[in-house]
Amino acid sequence: VKASYDNIEGAKIYLWENYLQGSPPGRMIVEVKHGTYITPDPLTIGCQDQGGGVDTGFNIKWGGWDAIDHMNKVASAYLEDHNGVLKQPLPSPSLPSDGDEYLVVEHDGVKASYDNIEGAKIYLWENYLQGSPPGRMIVEVK
């Protein structure tokens, strides 16, 4: 276990900042619920498609289900050794501005404004259930 984050975007950024795309070692984000339960299938975590790899924003590397099972066992052993208490989660790295503005728009109004797309995505994941109303989207302002 290399790091613990309180949200998926921070974990994704950690992988991009610490590993070359496609290079060893094997790595993935393991979703832990209630300090003890590890989601066994990492293809979808935090309602995002980790299995899509770089195409869906994840700098992962695994060689199939044997590697996935091994990494899940490593995470389980870590939780057992720490009595289900994770390391203090790291806050998400500050996200740099990309020069544009991104508005999070709900059905009838703007709910938030960010200077980077990742901040807007985090807002949506943290404030809405996947597939549930109301309608919402991110609008890029150039």
Protein model, in words:
The protein is α+β, with helices and mostly antiparallel strands and 142 residues long. Residues 88-92 have low confidence and may be disordered. Strands 6-5-7 form a three-stranded antiparallel beta sheet, covered by helices on one side. Strands 1-2 form a two-stranded antiparallel ribbon. Strands 3-4 form a two-stranded antiparallel ribbon. It has helices at residues 8-18, 65-81, 117-127, and strands at residues 32-33, 37-38, 44-45, 48-49, 101-106, 109-114, 136-141. The chain is 27% helix and 18% strand. The protein is globular. The longest helix has 17 residues, at 65-81.
Quick summary:
The chain has 142 residues and is an alpha+beta fold.
Main traits of this protein?
142 residues; alpha+beta; three-stranded antiparallel beta sheet; two-stranded antiparallel ribbon; 27% helix; globular
